[in-house]
Amino acid sequence: MTDLPPPPQATGRLLDAQLHLLDRSVVDRNDVPVTTVDALEITDIELDAPIPRGAPAPVITALLSGPVLATRIFGGRPPRSRLERIRWSDVTDIGIVLKLSVDGDSLAVTWVERWMRDKIIARIPGGHHDPE
Amino acid sequence: MKNLSGFALGILTAIGAFVDIGDLVTNAVVGSRFGLGLTWALALGVAGILLFAQMSGRVAAVSGRTIFEIVRERLGPRAGLANLVGSTFINVMSLTAQVGGIALALQLASSVDYLLWVPVAAFGLWIVVWRTKFSVLENVTGLLGLTLIVFAVAVFLLGPDWGSLARQAALPAVPSGEQPATYWYYAIALFGASMTPYEVFFYSSGAIEEKWTVKDLTRSRINVLIGFPLGGLLSLSIAAGAAIVLMPQSIQVTSLSQVVLPVAAAGGKVALAFVIVGIIAAIFGAALETTLSSGYTIAQFFGWSWGKFRRPANAARFHVTMILCLIIGIAVLLTRADPVLITEYSVVFAAVALPLTYLPILIVANDRQYMGEHVNGKATNALGVGYLVIIMVAAVAAIPLMIITGAGA
Questions:
Q1: Which ipTM was obtained for this model?
Q2: Which residue range forms the structural domain that includes residue A35?
Q3: Average pLDDT over residues B68-86
């Protein structure tokens, strides 16, 4: 890792994670809302250890959603296995909303939506029809 | 035709939301106790809702974002959640009051106990929310709600002493036998009834449902400018009727039948029939708006898929939320809790919750990332900040006044 060249100077837009990413809406490639950014996952930084000079900056790896919201409000952290992720590489656009390059239905984070659709809404007559 | 339906959104929000069970009851109570002495509070409320509904419509049309997405993004998860809990409490309380109001109006028409009508009314609401297009529901309830004009007609038929009414409105005073605290309590109730937060949730999300763009802003302005004052005039005529008929006989308004008494006294059975149709339509419209608003706020906070323009299957959590809210409303009403009393409390609690809705709109309406060149002008901001001060004072004073006056007793 140490013989990698230093990261190039940032030339693009400067984003403030708190201001431009957290709590923004996320829509899929068809502009259907998927979730809100409840938290971010970044590459590991060792806690309580001094950061060596020239170490690469941590990178965002995923948007998080689901139970992590409760811990953000009330404190604590869910176990890593319970995190619901949207891969950062699926994000195509960052504006007032974050756009994804995939279908919302293909993401693990939408399981509650799909469960309610299949178990409740789809079983009520008219659930699959356009409003008239 | 498209213009006409956009115009109907304004009328519906004016009559279906402006004149809802909260306005009917509060205006009749105020009219019967204070005459037109609180007209200023009504006028203040109408101007306020005009300002903020227009602002929220503009934010939604320009940025494509609605109130609760903005609340979440600007206030963060903690304050945002507190706001969501408060707003949902008010929404469900208003919804409960509206469902109770429909049931009471159906009881007036049929003499069948209102408790039996509660599940029927709630089921009717759900069917409409489930199956009917946004534009249809707004047009039908909007047009039928127009029959409420009979309240205004009744005032003319009663042939009142116009001079005395004008004096009451122009020179507000606390009538003898009433405490100043009670007067101010009802001023806040009337203000809260006119500015109920769900109207703004509905207006802002409705702009997305109707796919408004910047081009539609002028139309939105016309909607609001015509629709809301019209609703305000209807509210005023309810208070005027109560002031003419009920106040001299010191009849206290504790039920819906007393609210419509002035109309019946002026126009007999025909007028009564009109007013019952109008009340059912207007409250039904308002109940639809509160049901949808409950779904809108929660879905938008969590970033779920929402909207009437989608099939229910494509907004599953949104529809499940609305079903749950309706069930809560039914459950509360079936405890035999008095819908008129729930209404009276709901408008005061709405006043308490006003800053939660109005502060975020004002902030985002000034944000260039969202609004670009359509940010608030100086005059709008001055008005907005002025209103925020009034709203804060009303919100802070509401609960102490409620305790001091024993909820206006």
A1: 0.87
A2: 17-46+55-123
A3: 91
Q: Do A121 and B80 touch (CB under 8 A)?
A: no
Report the predicted TM-score, pTM, of the whole model to 2 decimal places. Answer: 0.91
Residue A22 lies in a domain: yes
Quick one: CA dihedral B275, B281, B286, B287, positive or negative? positive
A8 in a structural domain: no
**Does residue B409 fall inside a structural domain?**
no
CB within 8 A of B112, min separation 6: which ones?
Answer: B106
- A113–B304: do the CB atoms touch at under 8 Å? yes
Instruction: Tell me the pLDDT tens digit for each residue of B105-114.
Output: 999 999 999 9
CA distance A62 to A52: 25
- A 89-108 residues with CB < 8 A to B: 96-97, 104
Task: Please indicate, yes or no, if residue A9 is contained in any of the structural domains.
Answer: no
Q: How many domains does chain A have?
A: 1
Quote the domain boundaries for residue B58: 2-404
- CATH no. for residue A97? 2.30.30.240
Task: Give B180-226 pLDDT, tens digit per residue.
Answer: 999 999 999 999 999 988 888 988 898 888 888 888 877 777 777 88
Number of domains in chain B: 1
Residue in B69, B77, B316 nearest the CB of A116:
B316
Q: Do B306 and A113 touch (CB under 8 A)?
A: no
In the block, tokens 């309590």 appear at B185
Question: Between β-strands A98-100 and A33-36, what pairing exists: parallel, antiparallel or unpaired?
Answer: unpaired
Please report the number of interchain residue pairs, chain A to chain B, with beta-carbon separation below 8 angstroms. 89
User: CATH no. for residue B263?
Assistant: 1.10.4160.10
CB atoms B369 and A96 under 8 Å: yes
Q: What is the C-alpha to C-alpha distance for residues B318 and B314, in angstroms, rounded to an integer?
A: 9
Residue B409 has pLDDT above 90, yes or no: no
A32: in domain: yes
Question: Residue B303 falls within a domain, yes or no?
Answer: yes
Taking only the tens place, the pLDDT of each residue in A80-128 is: 888 889 999 999 999 889 999 999 999 989 999 999 999 999 999 988 8
